Give the backbone structure.
Amino acid sequence: MITLVTGATSGLGRNAVEHLAALAQPVRGTGRDRKVGAALRTQGIEFVAADLATAQEADFDRLLDGVDTVWHCAALSSPWGRYRDFYAANVEATARLAEAAVLRGVRRFVHISTPSVYSDYQHRLGIAETFRPARYVSHYASTKAQAEGVIRAMAARHRATGFVMLRPRAIFGPHDRALLPRILRVLRARHGRLPLPRGGNVRLDLTYVANVVHAMHLATNCEGLAPGEVFNITNGESATLRSVLEALLVPLGVPFRIVAPPYRILDAAARLMEVYATFSETEPALTRSSLGNLYYDMTLNIDKARTRLGYAPVTSLAEGIATTIEWIKTHGDDYGF
């Protein structure tokens, strides 16, 4: 039976389809980037271009034909944008795909959510899955929380399809379009200067992409889970952002110098940039939510994933960084090298 992977033209989804194909497991990828989709086809991977927010019944028939499992990795995760775009990509698309999956008898639906639903401009260590902030700090966090609500409601009504949710923290590795590319863009724009509050000494969890794919396998096959059960996923090795950047950038020969402007100055700048962006309809160089991620410590408790899913990282943080470095050296064009 086939596994459908959404978001197959971006970081996690692309790693997932390539991993399944390497195992000779039937896989179908979908996404909106037709150029990447064509590249996947040259690897022998079935690819169907689709926008889940606007897909019609015939599109879902094609996407879900013969599908046993859905790995829903697609999302709009930009730090800035219009609420309606986030809602369409993260809530409407999830609802429509989940409904189509239920109607077509899909056995297991693994939904990729985000620890951004925990962010609240406070230092938080060892966050459990039950934590909720007083309010969400961005359109992304708000709409991903709403998408989780959709999954919980579907799981409660339709027991024949097993719904599971994962919240992986700061995914990195091959095909990453977010973490390292954004940092490299800042370095190029600022001639090697990297302004980070606290000098980059924020403590955080990261998750090497192969560990997330491993967690999706476990969520697919684990029996006895509660409907719509949710799990934190990380490498289980918290680190400072500064140490991770040094481990990545020094071996790549990327010159950089971290400077530490006061948080209150960066916060004021982010607020002004957001006001300007609202009128200019351009993405600000810095947002309050992005700044919060760089300033406030956040680590997750993964005990539940360990005990309920049997999850343990298959790749250590050091191994993931080393593999990422080698991949970037081979695929430098993706990062502007």
